[in-house]
Structure formats: C-alpha cells, structure tokens
Amino acid sequence: MWKRNVFLALILALVPSQLLAAQYGKWNNDEAHGYERYWTENAKGARFTIWCPPNHDARGALLSIDIKGRHPSPRSLVHIELDRKLIKFKTDSKGFVRNDCAACVDNMTYFWHHLRVSMKFAIQLEDKRYAGFSLKGVKEAIPKSVCSRQLAGNSR
Length: 156
Prior knowledge:
This protein is α+β, with helices and mostly antiparallel strands. The chain is 21% helix and 32% strand.
C-alpha cells in the first residue's frame, strides 16, 4: 500500500502544473512558483498570463505576454483592446508589465474589471505584433477584484 502511495506522489510531482490547472472555457488558473496565475492561449500559440503574488497584493501583479514566441520589447507600450476600450501599459526592462505604482494599480483595476465583462480581447505591441484572445471562461477563472484571495470551489 505504501509503495502505491509513494508511486502516486512521484507521478503527481512529475506532472507539469499546466496539467493540474483549473480550466474555465479558454482560461486557466493554477499556482506556479508561489504565484497564482491566470492565462489563456490562442490557436496560434500566443499567450497572455496574469501573475498574482502570494500575498495577493494588487501592487505585485504582473502581466506576461508572448506573441510569436517573444515578449514585448523592453520599455515599450502594450495596447490592449477590450471591446471598444483601449488600455495602455508600459513594459519594464524585461518586457513585462509591472503593477508597482499608484497609477499602475488604477490602470490594472480598470483593465481587470473590463476583462471580466468584455466580449473582445486583443493586444497590439509597438512592433505591430498582434494577437486576439477568447474571453470564454474568464469571468469564472479570475476573481472579481485584482488578485483577491478566493477559496477553492467558490464562485468567482
């Protein structure tokens, strides 16, 4: 019996976290490196990920975008269209969108709200790379407010 349990534990340890993720339509969530993450991927392999820190502080949220195998250029603008609203974010020195200033938190809160209620979601980078993503399941996958703590199994 203990051998079976050890074997099962080893199998679970070796399974990539994406396979253990909760999936809601085209959106997924799980935990990686101590961060809660929410992500979607389109048919062409572009990926959009929201990383929420272990303390669930909205200031620690991070957006990661991968279009055509690359992140946005460092210190560039990311244009996100949600329905007919355009939201702009500035990337850091590594091409990630950080949320570590007062105006950033406001912009992220605005984005998060519209992400949950919109019908269309597209991203265009300064170098003209473009990707559209499905919003099917986003409302169930992400909490109502930015990086808020949710109990497993609760309605989001």
